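JOB MANIFEST
job_type = single_chain_structure
chain_count = 1
residues = 401
[input]
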Amino acid sequence: MAKAKFTARMIEEAGRGEYWDSDVTGFKVIVTRAGRKSFAIEGRLHGRKVKHTFSRVGTMTLEQARRRAKELLFEIVQGRDPAATALAARREWTLKELVREYKTGYFPSLRPATQQHYTDHFDRFILPEMGKRKVSDIAAADALRLFRSVETRCRRVDGEKVVRSGKTTANRVIATLSSLLSESVRLGLRTDNPCRAVRRNQESKRERYLSDDETARLLAACDASPHLVPANLIRLLVFTGARKGETLAAKWSEFDLAHGIWTKPSHHTKQNRTHTVPLSQAALALLRDMRQEAERAGAEEWLFPGARTGRRLVSPKRAVRRIFEQAALTSDVCLHTLRHSFAARVVSSGHGLHATGKLLGHTQAATTHRYAHLEHDTQRRALADSDQLLNAAVSVLISRT
């Protein structure tokens, strides 16, 4: 247990462990394995050890934390347990108050896209339904009621045809609530997570791939489109198989066009790891043209700049849909279909699942295994070629006899 006078720089550079302030006895900083840093105090009350974590590092300044630590340590001297007092107060929290704490303490460890999804679930579904309820009062029946409500609200019917079931959205919302209530268990507000009693809807993975003809029509529609930036986004997704989010958030500093390398930073990737991939000649040709245009326009930060100066493109849904319609693609095609199609092309061209997974940035082999049937098609073609060669050899032998 290191002991030294705390400074902001020392706390910023601290690794996993507990660190004690030499100025205020009993004041410490805790750094977890995940890198979370918290201010805490520790003292003795009636002969027993008392610990209390009172703030995340960053939510208050070091001097504010030091003053708060002195106040809490003085409470122990007066015979009160600050941890028990804080726990009693938290047990009266509403779900809205828990969400506020969750965003402060847990959100910094999540990707920006995940934060946005969670915020959307909180604002649209969870808080309107149960934001004023006490955290300790929420039961499995309440979680199930929310689950069914989301299914109903997100179900869309066109005439007599159901065009959207809402079942997948319900799964995602209940997963968000489950994560929130797991945090309440960690904080000691509850002893259980009622969301675990909710049976999730079965989901089927999308297996839609573009044919070679559909891909050719799509690229032709991009060439004809007046929406240059969305068209370039589609082209790059076709050529790289990258995720939409990491591509929209890409900056020119991530690309080494001389060596044909794209280094995706960890905070942009789904697996939270830096992902380096080679670029195809088609992707490089597109990127070089885009780079020249960016230099002429003076927009040299974002790969896909938005309408406002200094901002990136967020979600060009309308322009993308127009290009898809111009290419005569069916309504079940979306930008993520281009990722599946890229993987299908790589596997079908004879390259293995391992290489495909590396290009896509998969950390689990099981994720790439969904394309295994395409590898079988390649193997069948190889067998057919082998049969053809054998038959030719037999025909030659017969002709000689």
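[summary]
The mean pLDDT is 82.
The chain has three domains: 2-90, 96-197, 212-379.
exit_status = 0
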